[in-house]
Design goal:
By secondary structure, the protein is mostly helical. It has helices at 2-13, 17-49, 52-58, 62-99, 106-130, 136-159, 165-217, 228-234, 236-257, 273-284, 287-313, 318-352, 354-361, 368-393, 397-421, 428-450, 452-463, and strands at residues 263-266, 269-271. The mean pLDDT is 81.
Length: 464
């Protein structure tokens, strides 16, 4: 993502308020596009659905609207979990080839990984929707939505190196607006079936648009076999990291949904209204942190990292290598300070304003502690994700795998405890899991940084 971050910085260099507004809007969509735009779409559709006149005209009730929302939620969870098996490994694969100047390998990699992602979706999501309890027309719509979104996630891995960021942003905007219009219109004429299909078509159009952008950005093609799957096996820890970290993000929801605190919507679809609302709202509040990371934090870190890497690979002396390492430390300290001031200040303000926010997002005053736990957890989860990215920059795959494993394990255990024994503190288990995972990760990161020179040269020796 550092590549597109550098290009976005040109918007900020113009120095006008318009360029700043456009730059932050572009950065927000590119860093958080799929889930941010979809949450905003759900809010917009929910706004229409909150009108009694619309519900009467559409011949749809509150229960059916709940089916729509939970279907979208499960589609997001499933597409991230299954897609997570590919994203990090594929990202590393194309980065290696781009670094070596073999751009002709990017398009074959996309075609093969897209085929694998969609094929795995047929097995996993196809089976799930077959037994989901939805009507056949609705199940096919949910499955189509899943396949479209899975391809969107994969496309964003490749488009992080793209030049045409404006086309990506406009594609997100137009396809999501069209999806909303089709969903609302379809709901009026076809009820729940039309609502699901309208939204699914929007996601499928976005997947097609982003795929076309990849063909445009990387038109060269090698007829030779692209050993992407062999590379994934060679980087097996990355496969585990991608799956386990996403499982860590969703595991507390699964524990709550399939507990006495959850409720059945239809078939195998469960939810917990207050818990879901608090967390999904909280995730939207960290969009500023994701934006800052894309345009400031990662780009600044990459510059410092490049100095260190150049000193190592170009035969620099030990003083140059140590100087590069110190620049990395300074960059990380500055980034932590920026994030703490920028996003930390916003989160603190939201924590204080929680009693005022609660009525607007539809939660009872008794759930204010849950909202506060969720806001703080979302902020710290963003920091945990950034830490994981830094692990991967240094190719500390086993450390990253240990962090992801610790995160998912602690989240399941601590959430289970709060759900079954401390229900008045629901949400605290998730928060405690992230705090412990951050401590665990920072300890590992600091120890690895102390041994950075040794590990770097040891890897060079292994390669030779």
């Amino acid at each position: 993502m550092a590549g597109i971050g550098f290009r976005l910085q040109k918007l900020f260099n113009a120095g006008t308020y318009t360029s700043l507004a456009v730059g932050y809007a572009y950065s927000a969509i590119i860093s958080s596009g799929p889930w941010m735009m979809s949450m905003l779409s759900l809010v917009t559709i929910g706004f229409f659905a909150s009108s009694p006149d619309f519900l009467a005209a559409a011949a749809i009730d509150i229960q059916q609207m709940s089916v729509f929302r939970i279907t979208v939620t499960y589609v997001y969870a499933g597409s991230l979990l299954v897609g997570g098996l590919f994203h990090l490994g594929v990202s590393r694969y194309i980065a290696d080839h781009m670094y070596a100047g073999r751009m002709e390998q990017v398009l074959p990699c996309f075609m093969r990984s897209a085929a694998a992602t969609l094929g795995l979706g047929i097995v996993t999501a196809g089976l799930w929707f077959a037994v989901s309890g939805l009507e056949p027309v609705q199940a096919v719509a949910g499955f189509s939505m899943y396949q479209g979104l899975s391809l969107v996630w994969l496309c964003m891995v490749f488009l992080s190196a793209a030049k045409g960021y404006d086309a990506i942003v406009w594609g997100f905007f137009i396809c999501n607006v069209l999806g909303i219009a089709l969903a609302v219109g379809g709901c009026v004429y076809f009820g729940l079936d039309g609502l699901l299909w309208g939204y699914a078509i929007g996601q499928m159009l976005l997947a097609c648009w982003l795929s076309m952008r990849i063909f445009r950005e990387f038109p060269s093609y090698s007829p030779e076999s692209s050993e992407v799957f062999a590379a994934l096996l060679d980087k097996a820890p990355l496969v585990g990291v991608g799956f386990l970290f996403n499982l860590g993000i969703w595991s507390d929801k699964f524990v709550v949904w399939y507990s006495p605190m959850g409720k059945t919507i239809i078939g195998w679809f469960y939810c917990s209204d207050n818990y879901d609302t608090c967390l999904f709202f909280s995730y939207l509040t960290v969009i500023p942190a994701m934006t800052l990371f894309l345009i400031r934090v990662e780009t600044a870190f990459y510059r410092a990292y490049s100095i260190y890497l150049t000193a190592v690979t170009a035969g620099g002396d030990m003083d140059a290598i140590r100087e590069g390492k110190e620049k990395i430390k300074k960059s990380l300290n500055l980034s932590a300070s920026r994030l703490a001031k920028f996003q930390g200040g916003l989160t603190l303000a939201l924590l204080l304003a929680a009693p005022l926010i609660a009525p607007y997002i539809g939660i009872h005053i008794d759930s204010i502690p849950l909202l506060r736990f969720s806001l703080l957890a979302a902020f710290l989860q963003a920091l945990l994700q950034f830490l994981l990215i830094f692990f991967l920059y240094f190719d500390w795959q086993r450390h990253a795998l240990a962090l992801a494993t610790f995160f998912v394990t602690s989240n399941v255990v601590l959430t289970f405890i709060t759900v079954h024994y401390l229900q008045e503190y629901i949400g605290l288990g998730y928060l405690a899991s992230i705090v412990l995972s951050l401590v665990f990760g920072l300890v590992k990161f600091n120890r690895a940084m102390e041994l950075l020179e040794f590990e770097t040269f040891a890897k060079q020796v292994e390669k030779t």
